[in-house]
Structure formats: C-alpha cells, structure tokens
C-alpha cells in the first residue's frame, strides 16, 4: 500500500496521473458546461483561449455529402445510431491528426456539437450564413439578398440572434461567425444604387452589409458574452469599411486563396484593424488541371507553406503576431460541387475558376481550380456502417505532423525547423498508398462497381378463370433479373460507366408493365388486313442481355465531350432555353416499361475560348426526339444575358416512343433569348422561328361558312414571348407573360413551376396571356394564376365530302399533325384559373422539388391546389403510333369542348427523424388525352407511403373511376371503376434508400372493370388481381 | 445621401419608359397574326372527266408513293377519303379518271390492298375507255403492287338479301389475277396481247395464276 501511495505521489508530481486519468475518463474530459472562449493580447501578439487555456485553431471545413447526393443531403435527419457512426468515423480520424476545430456551412444541431466535442475534443464554429445564398424574407425567397432592405435586415438579424441564443450555452461551441464571403455576393439592384459607377455601387452595398454584421455582433455579444464573434469575409476586401464597424468584433475571419503565401494580408490587417486573424477557408485543390491528374504532392506542399506562414505570424514570433490559426478547406472531397445536381456519383475534373497563386497547374487564360478536389481526404467507398469513408491524402499526413507544433509556445526557429524537416517523401508515400487503394477501387481501367439481383414470384387471377376453375384458375410465374455496374477509365481524360441487364425468367404480369418485359413471350400480329394472323414468338436469347445505360466523358482543355445512353438528363430552361427545345429526360422508370433507351447521344460543352457553347446531338437526345442536333450559345450584350439556340432534326424517328406516342415530322427551330434585371424586376424576352420547312404547305379552315385552302407563309413560322417578374409588395412575387406563336411556330416544353396544372402547350397557333402572384404570409404561400389562350386558326369541324355530277365538295375535317402542317390540339382556346396553397415551415427544402417526398424536412407540410379550365372549342384530331403498321394514325375526331377541373393535394408528415408519411390526393373531371370516344369523367385518387424506422415502407393507392396507370390509357380513355395497390417493403441494408437498398417485399394489385375498361377484360369478369413477392440484393 | 447623386424623377421616368416600350412591343406581338382573309375558297372543285392520264410522278398510284396528293388535278387531295367515305364517294365518281384520283388518294392515305386494287382497276378502266398507253403501263404496275404488297388482302362486297346485309369477302390476289388474265369477264380491255403474255408476266413477277381455280400462288 505504501508503495502504491508513493507511486501515486510520484505520478501526481510528474503529472503522469493526470494523463492516466484522462485515459479513463475519455469522453468526459471536456467541460460539461458551456466553454468560455476569449481572445488575449499583449505585446507579443494575440492568443485565443478556451476555458483559460491557450487554443490555437488547427481546423478544417467539414461537411458530409455521400456520393450521389447534393447539398440538400441532411445527415441530421438520419437515425441517431447512423449519425454517431458517421461522426465517429470522421472525427476519430481528425482527432488522430490533431485537428481541434471545424467550421461547417450548415448548422449542426446542438446535441451533436456537444457530442463531437465530448467524444473527440473538437470544437465547432457556429456560422449562420446570413442570406449569403439567398434568404426567405417576408415569406418570399430572394435569391439575391438586399442588405439595404429594412425587412431583410430585420429578418436576418432576428434569425441570426435566434441561433446565438440556441448555441450560447452549448458545450463545444468555439465562436460565432456570420456570412461566407458575403462581400462577393452584393448582387442586388435597387433604384438608389444602380446609377452609381460600378465600383461605388459595390462599396455602397458593402456599407449596408458590414453595418448589419456589426448590429448582429453587437447584439449577439450581449446574448453570448462568453464567445468571440466575427464575420467570414472574402479575403480582406473593404478593410476600410470593416474598420469602421468592427469595434465590437473579436477577430477577423477571412477566406483567402492567395497561393503559397498570404503576402501582405497580415500587415494590412494589423495596420487597419486591432484584431487577430483566423482563416475560415484556405488551402489548395489536389488536382492538377494542367496535367489532368490528381496531384497530392502539390496540395501538401501548398498547405505546408501556408501553415508555416500562419505559425510564423502567431504570438511571440516577432512578426505581426495576429494569427490564431485557421480552417483548411476542406476535410473531404465533395462530388456535388461542380454542376451541383448532375453527375453526383462521379468526381468531376472540370476546373471552374482560375487562380494564379497555384502555380503548379496555372496556365494563363485557363481555369485551374477544381472544386470537387479540395479535400485533404477523398470521398471513398461506403463501409459496413453505410458511411462513405474519408481516405487520407498526403496533405492529411502532412497536417498531422504540422499540428504537433504549439505555435504559441514553440520557438520560431524550432517551428521552422520542424516544418523544414518534414519527411515529405515518407508522407507522400503514405498518401500514395491510400491513393493506390483508392485507384484500385475507383480508377481501374475497367472495374465491376456493383450491381443487384432481383427475384420475383407472382400469382394472378381474373374472375372468369377463378369462377370456372377455382384455384386452378390462378396462374403462377417467376422472374429473375441481374444488373451489373461497370466503370472504366482507360486514360486520364476518359472515364465512364455502364450497366448490363441480364434476364432470367420474366414474371407474367397482366396489370403492370415493368422493365424486363422484353423477355416475355410476345404475340406478334400479322399486318395483312383484314384478318390479322396471330402467332406467339418466343424471345430471342440475345434479348436477355442488354446494355441498360452508359455514360462516358472525355474531359478536354477546351471542351468536354459527354456520351449518354439512357441516363437522366435535365432541361436547359434556366440557362437560356426559353422555349424548352431541349426536353428533360428523367423518367427512366417510365421509359423502362417500354424498354425505350433515351436519352441517347453526345454533348460537347465548350470551355475557355468557346465557353458558353453547348452542342448536343444524337439519335434520341430526349425521349421521343427525332435524331437531331441542338446548339446553344450564351453571351452577354450590354449587361443582358442572351442565348441563341438552333435545333435541327436530321431524320424522323422510325417508331413511336412509349406505348403509342406518335412520331413527329422532321423539323427545325431557332430561338433567341434575352434576360435583363432592373429595379428589382426581371424581364425575359424570346423569339422563335420554327418549322420553316412547312412554308408553302397547304391547310384548310372554315371561314364565314366557306372552306378555305391557304398556305403556310414565313410569318406563320415566327413567335415571340415576354415575361416580367416583379415584387409588387413585400412578401410577394408576381409575373405577367404574353406569347404569340404563328401557326407552325412550335416550341418545346414550357417551364412549369410550383406544381402548376395550367394547360400549357408546346404548339404554336396561339395568342396567350398569363399571370400570377405568389403571396407568402408566415409559413403559408398562396399562389393564384390565370391563363388565357386563343388560337389564330381554330380547329376544323367535320363536313363530309360529296359529289354532285362533275362537281366535288371536298368538305372539311379535323386536321392532324401527320397530314397537315399544324393542328389545334392541347394548344386550343382555354380559359384557366388556378390557386395553390402551400404550407411549408422549412422553405429551404422546396416543396416543389422533384424529390420532395424524400427531402422535405418539416414536421408537417402540405399543398392544396385547384385548377379549373374552360375549353370553349374542340380540338383537331390527335394522332397515335400504330405499331403493327409502323405508322401514325389519327383519331377521326377531336376532343369536344369541355369544362374540366383538377384538385390536388400533397401532405408530408415527419413526426420523427426516422418516420415519414406522404399522402397524395387527387380528384377531378378530366377529358381523355387524345381519343374523342367517351365523356369526361370525374375521378378520385388517394395515394400514400409510410416509412417507419427508415426500414419499413408501406405504400399504396386507391383510385375510383380513374384512368389506368399508363399514358396510353389516358390517351384512349381507358378507365377502371376501382384500382387498388398495397405494398410492403423492408430495406435490408445500411443504405436506407428505397432505390439502392437490398430489400424484400410483397405487392397486391387489384382492379375492377366496366364498359369503359378494356373490352377483352370486361368480357372476362368484374375483377382482376395480382400478388407478387420480391427480393432484391444489392452489392 | 445617395439621392444627391441621382435625379429620382428622371430615373424613374427612364425606367418606366423602358418597361412601357417592352410592354407595347409585346402587346403588338400578341395583336398581330394572320388576318384570316388569305387563301382560296374551295367549296366545290371540278372533277376531271377526260381520259388523259398526266403522271404527277412516275410511281403515282403505286404503294407507297403519295405524290397524287400534290396533283393539282386531284379534287380529292384534301378531302376526307377514308374507310368510312370512300365507297360512297366511289359510287358517285363521274369518270374513270376521277375514280383513279379517289382510290389513289385513299391509297396514299392508307396502305390497304383494296385501295391499291381499285386504283389499278381505275387505271385499267381509263385504258379501256381511252386506250392510253400510259394508263395501261401504270395499271399493270398497280396490279403487280397488289400482289407484291398486299398478297393476303381481301376486299368486301355488301350484298342486300332478304335476311339483311351480308358481306362477301374476295381475295384481292385472285381479283388481280383475273383482271390481268381474263379482264373481258370484267368488261375491261386486256392489258396484254393474249392471256399467255399475262401469265408470263405474272410468272416473271414470281406468281402463278391457276386458270381453273383462279387462285394465285407465290413462286418464292
């Protein structure tokens, strides 16, 4: 015992006990209550102290976005167990390297700030962005924050101070910082500022910005006196203005990308501000844009030099003494950053900005900064916990060595010696070993990336068979399907991936079309009329294996070439395609059931001297497109954004897309677009010249009771439209738009936003006016819209032809787009009004995002909309594709005049982070899409999905008197008295993603028939059902 | 303080003027368009009754050529010539040439065997009535098109019986064989100098005509 006492005394003296105790109480070492963080200054310079102890910021900018996700990914909505695994992975690795603080662009919930601190000893900067990337002000989303607007200032201040109140007593908070390079985002326009010279405009705006920062910091410090406050400035721009507002600030936060050295930054700050400096971003990317390869060494060398300078500018080094450390940008690569919504599962190698400070890959006139390569770790593969791992680069190992330095207390020469003596070769080897592992996984010339195996067992029955044969009337079938995903990268500049689908048996569903139906026994109908001969043909073996999708990229210096085959592609409507000539193709499931393979083609994206140019061409660049080439060039004239586009069909598609979608004539369009903003308003103007090949084509119409034959003339190919968007009062956004389109001035898909169901049309032959106003009050948005449209030439009635002796009365009939230069179809005269109510307390996750079902993070959000349309005239005849004859055919008549309405609502409930319920309601009176047969009918539909514990998914729908689930059923007015679907699926792995996960499930389909249902089915009984069980294993 | 540097009144007027110009231009765009006074009134068209066959293009009347729709002499080009109207219109055609345009139009619109056969019959009738060599040659090509493109096709005749209407189907290949081999039975002038030549012609196309049964079979 005496020996033990002696040992303990010795240990206390030598402080060894403290070390041992700290090991036992790991996780409880750090303060249980809020930290007191202060700055300290004496004649040797500045220090930062946490709870009275020196604290030098050895930080990184941290975030977690898995592959395939973008900035909307919300880690904090995941199950707690997963969050812990994720944080333990990242912060464990950080702690090993001596990283002691992080900065993030999102607000980490308080409990996790404390968790990170207590478990890993890493502190967090709370950093409200204060409208840097837009703000919701008065309920209206404003993409360009106007810091001079009183309501905006009041809103941003209130929100920021609420954050301060929330975090002021949270253990692990290092400091509060506001904005992010907000001085680079002074983009608003106003009457007061716009007529100043450009330079003065920015300075005037900056004054508003910094005065607001000062107000927030001054009031924030009164709320949280135990933490430092600062801003995140873009370098040290407007230092003179900052100096006028910084009396209450504790330090200057700045993002600086000056290269190896921060040059005169230290001196300038010291000269103008009596504040220490913290870098909230600095660093280097790890990609060499000149050689087009990953360049770990360059990143490590740049970071080493930057940190050495920071250390030398610290307390007691005889220089400025105003460096408190910084946050390296960034912890891990982010694959969403370039293009942000595209190629999310690929690491893009496009350099998007230029910086001469990074001489290792700088070439004058060329971009060299690769946004997706700034991590000191890579975004690796997913591990068993479902976490995409951080794979260290050389820079990580270099920082781990550098962070052994105590910049406050180590002598300057000792620091510089340590830095100089760093064994960069050894550290590079460590990084290269990781790189080799990564390359093995990611960059093999050709590699199998994964895949899935699916098996299905199906039982089906129809009333007549069951009545006749009892249980023997049921039919059983099974199906198997294998997907294999491959990637390739034969050279530095060429990469891509593709999937192969292999079919086994195919379950013989009668109620659903599914991908893989190509493997079913097909009935081929002889096309020799009038007695079609039918015979069954078994599928050819070769059809059981096919390339499901493919994409490849050549990344060049002056252009990128992207090849695409059945991978989602987006429209260009937000980049100058005012007429929507390039249609979006994202409904891959919708195509799969018909085994269509759009989009299929190639895209050239210009860089450098041809920046702004895009060319896309191919056999089917969007679903249903003729083989065509499309060119777009964006440019500026006098501050107005302009875009020129030309689309040229090279041939006519040789078969219809989908079930019976008619092919379109070969055609061409040319458009011009201009957008300018002034006085808070946005004006967009566009013109189109379309279908010039139809000039001289004849068409007929009824005029004053006479049949008139006319010709398409040049002016019939022209169209123009304009749209003015403005805010008539606080909390509102309004627009008015007018359009004229000549008889054949057909465009593409109009831009439809915020869930509108107004009857837009891509066709010409119209004069159209529309308008709407979005009013937001609190969390409720009300958006009424109206649309009025007339035709230049109306649809034709039917007057039968007749002969009287040697005189023939040709009569007249509905036109169709196959035989006439134009037809009045969905562009017919319409008077439509709509109102949508949207309640969404978390507008950052837009309720009208295509994936809102999964992204909405409010506890409860909903919308409710009613659209009513009066069609005062009939249409001409629609066409459809007749597969047996490989040609289009026209319905004999058009749709009659009708009044229709549609009521829609979506509700999303998130009662907890792991439970979600989505309900969709729809009721309405709608016409068939194409056939004149049958009346418009009222229908009712309820659809729901319940996700429990992010594992159990219960979904289904009930529809009364609705069309079937496929477009062709709406085209041909096929309805069912009752349709029911009920499905249960259980996710089996850590992806927790309905699409990607392994899963097992069961699905029931049931429907009843009446005289409006398919004739063959109605004759077979009153109902039909199918039950299928399935299993999917993803690997 | 900023207001010292600008004249609000002038500024606002300039902005207002720009907006007004945009709106006026846009309004003009919406207001323009065809005035509806162009075009030709075509309530009635003369039906050709002559026997001169002017070929709009070499393959006029032969599947799949549709140039007959561009023939200025064709009164049916823009009319509803479809399954529901063509037989009624055919009953009222005043001439073989009119019949040719009618069935040729039907063929151009819908590739059916009976449309091709009746186009051939109309050409044959023109030859019968006027002796036009052009009509004879084109009729032979049209008959061959029936065999080449619509070998299994039928046409129907409606027969009024006491019990009601009855439709009788006729095999177009057999009608074609008869029209070529023994057109006199159909009150048409032979297209060949003799029946053997007709059989030889069909044989060279790959078909056999059984003179007893009237059945046409393929040689390939």
Describe the structure.
The complex is a heterodimer of chains A (1035) and B (220). By secondary structure, chain A is an alpha+beta fold. Among the domains of chain A are: 410 residues, TIM Barrel; 117 residues, no CATH class. Chain A is 19% helix and 37% strand. Chain A has 18 helices and 49 strands. Chain A has a 24-stranded antiparallel β-barrel. In chain A, strands 4-5-6-9-10-11-12-15 form an 8-stranded parallel barrel, surrounded by 4 helices. In chain A, strand 45 and strand 46 form a beta hairpin. In chain A, helix 5 runs parallel beside helix 7, helix 10 packs parallel to helix 11 and helix 10 runs antiparallel to helix 12. The radius of gyration of chain A is 33 Å and the shape is globular. Chain B has a domain of 144 residues. Chain B is an alpha+beta fold and 220 residues long. In chain B, the strands form 2 sheets. Chain B has a two-stranded antiparallel ribbon. A two-stranded antiparallel sheet of chain B has the order 5-6. The longest helix of chain B is centred in the first third of the chain and has 24 residues. The N terminus of chain B is likely disordered. In chain B, helix 5 packs antiparallel against helix 6. Chain B has 7 helices and 6 strands, in the order H-E-E-H-H-H-H-E-E-H-H-E-E. Classes of the chains: A alpha+beta (1035), B alpha+beta (220). The interface between A and B is large, with 61 and 57 residues.
**Helix residue percentage of chain B:** 40-55%
The fourth-level CATH homologous superfamily of the domain at 31-440 in chain A is Glycosidases
Distance between the termini of chain A: 59 Å
> What is the rounded Rg of chain B?
29 Å
Net shape of chain B: globular
Number of strands of chain A: 49
The appropriate CATH architecture of the domain at 31-440 in chain A is Alpha-Beta Barrel
Order of helices and strands of chain B: HEEHHHHEEHHEE
Poorly predicted runs of 5 or more residues of chain A: 1-29, 525-536
* Largest interchain contact: A-B, 61 and 57 residues
Judged by helices, strands and strand pairing, the structural class of chain B is alpha+beta
Q: Structural class of the secondary elements of chain A?
A: alpha+beta
Strand order of the largest sheet of chain B: 3-4
Mean residue pLDDT of chain A: 87
**Beta-strand segment tally of chain B:** 6
CATH top level of the domain at 31-440 in chain A? Alpha Beta
Instruction: Kindly report the oligomeric state of this protein.
Output: heterodimer
Describe the main β-sheet of chain B briefly.
Answer: 2 strands, antiparallel
């Amino acid at each position: 015992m005496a020996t033990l006492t002696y040992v303990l005394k010795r240990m206390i003296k030598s402080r060894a006990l403290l070390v041992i105790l700290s090991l036992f109480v790991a996780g409880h070492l750090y303060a249980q209550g809020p930290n007191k963080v202060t700055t300290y200054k004496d004649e040797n310079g500045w220090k930062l102290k946490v709870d009275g102890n020196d604290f030098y910021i050895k930080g990184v900018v941290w975030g977690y976005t898995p592959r395939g996700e973008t900035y909307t990914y919300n880690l904090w909505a995941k199950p707690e167990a997963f969050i812990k695994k994720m944080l333990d992975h990242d912060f464990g690795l950080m702690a090993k390297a001596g990283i002691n603080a992080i900065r993030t662009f999102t607000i980490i919930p308080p409990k996790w700030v404390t968790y990170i601190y207590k478990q890993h000893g890493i502190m967090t900067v709370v950093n409200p962005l204060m409208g840097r990337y837009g703000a919701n002000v008065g309920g209206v989303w404003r993409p360009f924050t106007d810091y001079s607007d009183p309501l905006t200032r009041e809103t941003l201040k209130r929100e920021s101070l609420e954050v301060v109140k929330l975090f002021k007593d949270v253990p692990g908070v290092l400091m509060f910082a506001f904005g992010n390079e907000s001085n680079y985002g002074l983009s608003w326009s106003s009457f007061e500022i716009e007529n100043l010279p450009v330079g003065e405009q920015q300075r005037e705006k900056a004054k508003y910005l910094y005065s607001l920062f000062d107000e927030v910091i001054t009031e924030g410090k009164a709320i949280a006196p135990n933490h430092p406050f600062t801003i995140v400035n873009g370098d040290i721009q407007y230092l003179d203005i900052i100096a006028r507002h910084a009396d209450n600030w504790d330090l200057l936060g700045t993002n600086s990308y000056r290269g190896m050295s921060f040059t005169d930054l230290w001196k300038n700050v010291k000269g103008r501000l009596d504040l220490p400096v913290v870098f909230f971003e600095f660093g280097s990317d790890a990609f060499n844009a000149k050689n087009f390869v990953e360049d770990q060494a360059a990143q490590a060398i740049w970071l080493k030099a930057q940190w050495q300078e920071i250390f030398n500018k610290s307390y007691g080094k005889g220089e400025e003494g105003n460096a408190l450390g910084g946050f390296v940008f960034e912890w891990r690569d982010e694959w969403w950053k370039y293009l942000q919504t595209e190629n999310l599962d690929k690491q893009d190698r496009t350099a998007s900005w230029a910086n001469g400070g990074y001489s290792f890959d700088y070439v004058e006139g060329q971009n060299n900064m690769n946004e997706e390569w700034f991590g000191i770790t890579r975004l690796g593969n997913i591990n068993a916990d479902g976490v995409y791992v951080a794979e260290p680069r050389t820079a990580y190992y270099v920082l781990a060595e550098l962070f052994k330095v105590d910049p406050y207390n180590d002598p300057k020469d000792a620091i510089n010696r340590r830095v100089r003596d760093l064994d960069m070769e050894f550290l590079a080897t460590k990084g290269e070993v990781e790189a080799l592992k990564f390359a093995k996984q990611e960059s093999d010339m050709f590699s199998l990336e994964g895949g899935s195996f699916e098996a299905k067992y199906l039982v089906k029955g129809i009333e007549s068979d069951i009545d006749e044969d009892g249980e023997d009337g049921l039919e059983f079938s099974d199906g198997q399907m294998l997907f294999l995903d491959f990637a390739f990268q034969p050279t530095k500049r060429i990469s891509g991936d593709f999937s192969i689908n292999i079919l086994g048996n195919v379950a013989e569903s009668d109620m659903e079309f599914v991908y893989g139906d190509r493997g079913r026994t097909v009935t081929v109908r002889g096309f020799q009329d009038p007695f079609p001969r039918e015979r069954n043909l078994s599928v050819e073996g070769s059809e059981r294996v096919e390339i499901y999708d493919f994409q490849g990229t050549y990344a060049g210096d002056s252009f990128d070439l992207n090849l695409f085959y059945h991978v989602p592609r987006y429209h260009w409507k937000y980049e100058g395609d005012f007429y929507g000539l390039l249609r979006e193709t994202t409904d891959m499931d919708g195509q799969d059931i018909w085994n269509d393979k759009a989009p299929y083609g190639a895209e050239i994206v210009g860089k450098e001297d041809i920046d702004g140019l895009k060319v896309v061409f191919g056999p089917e660049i969007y679903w249903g497109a003729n083989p065509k080439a499309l060119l777009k060039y964006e440019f500026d004239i006098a501050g107005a954004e302009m875009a020129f586009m030309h689309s040229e069909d090279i041939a006519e598609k040789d078969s219809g897309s989908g079930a019976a979608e008619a092919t379109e004539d070969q055609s061409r369009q040319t458009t011009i677009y201009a957008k300018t903003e002034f006085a808070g308003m946005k004006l967009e103007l566009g013109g189109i010249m379309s279908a010039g090949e139809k000039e001289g084509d004849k068409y007929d119409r009824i005029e004053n009771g006479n049949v008139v034959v006319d010709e398409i003339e040049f002016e019939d190919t022209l169209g123009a439209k304009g749209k003015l968007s403005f805010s008539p009062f606080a909390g509102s956004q309004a627009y008015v738009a007018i359009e004229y389109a000549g008889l054949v001035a057909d465009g593409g898909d109009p831009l439809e936003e915020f869930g509108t169901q107004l009857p837009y049309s891509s066709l010409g032959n119209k004069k159209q006016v529309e308008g709407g106003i979005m009013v937001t009050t609190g969390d409720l948005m009300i958006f009424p819209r109206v649309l009025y449209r007339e035709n230049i030439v109306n649809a034709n009635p039917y007057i039968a032809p007749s002969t009287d002796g040697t005189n023939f009365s040709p009569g007249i009939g509905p036109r169709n787009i196959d035989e006439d230069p134009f037809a009045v179809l969905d562009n017919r005269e319409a008077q439509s009004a709509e109102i949508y109510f949207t309640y969404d307390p978390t507008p950052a996750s837009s309720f009208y995002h295509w994936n809102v079902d999964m992204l909405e993070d409010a506890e409860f959000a909903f919308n409710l909309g009613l659209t009513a349309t009066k069609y005062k005239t009939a249409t001409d005849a629609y066409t459809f594709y007749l597969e047996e004859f490989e040609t289009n055919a026209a319905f004999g008549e058009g749709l009659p005049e009708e009044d229709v309405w549609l009521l829609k609502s979506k509700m999303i409930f998130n009662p907890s982070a792991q439970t979600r319920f989505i309900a969709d309601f729809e009721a309405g009176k709608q016409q068939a899409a194409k056939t004149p047969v049958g009346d418009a009918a009222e229908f009712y539909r309820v659809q729901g999905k319940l996700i429990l514990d992010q594992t159990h998914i219960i979904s289904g729908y009930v529809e009364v008197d609705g069309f079937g689930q496929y477009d062709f059923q709406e085209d041909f007015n096929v309805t069912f008295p009752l349709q029911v679907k009920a499905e249960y699926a259980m996710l089996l792995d850590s992806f927790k993603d309905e699409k990607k996960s392994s899963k097992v499930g069961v699905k029931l389909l049931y429907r009843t028939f009446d005289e409006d249902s398919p004739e063959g089915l109605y004759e077979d009984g009153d109902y039909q059902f199918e039950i299928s069980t399935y299993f999917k294993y993803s690997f | 303080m900023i207001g010292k540097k600008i004249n609000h009144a002038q500024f606002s007027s300039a902005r207002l003027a720009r907006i007004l110009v945009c709106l006026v231009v846009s309004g003009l765009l919406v207001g323009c368009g065809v005035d509806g006074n162009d075009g030709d009134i075509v309530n009635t068209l003369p039906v050709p009754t002559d026997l001169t066959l002017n070929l709009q293009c070499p393959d006029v009347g032969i599947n799949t050529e549709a140039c007959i729709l561009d023939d200025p002499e064709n009164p049916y080009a823009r009319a509803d010539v479809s399954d529901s109207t063509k037989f009624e219109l055919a009953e009222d055609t005043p001439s073989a040439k009119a019949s040719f345009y009618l069935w040729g139009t039907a063929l151009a619109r819908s590739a059916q065997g009976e449309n091709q056969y009746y186009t051939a019959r109309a050409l044959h009738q023109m030859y019968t009535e006027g002796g036009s060599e052009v009509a004879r040659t084109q009729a032979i090509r049209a008959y061959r098109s029936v065999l080449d493109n619509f070998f299994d096709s039928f046409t129907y005749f409606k027969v009024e019986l006491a019990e009601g209407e009855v439709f009788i189907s006729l095999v177009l290949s057999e009608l074609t064989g008869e029209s070529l081999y023994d057109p006199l039975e159909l009150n048409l002038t032979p297209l060949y100098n003799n029946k053997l030549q007709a059989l030889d012609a069909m044989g060279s196309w790959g078909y056999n005509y059984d003179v007893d049964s009237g059945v046409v079979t393929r040689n390939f």
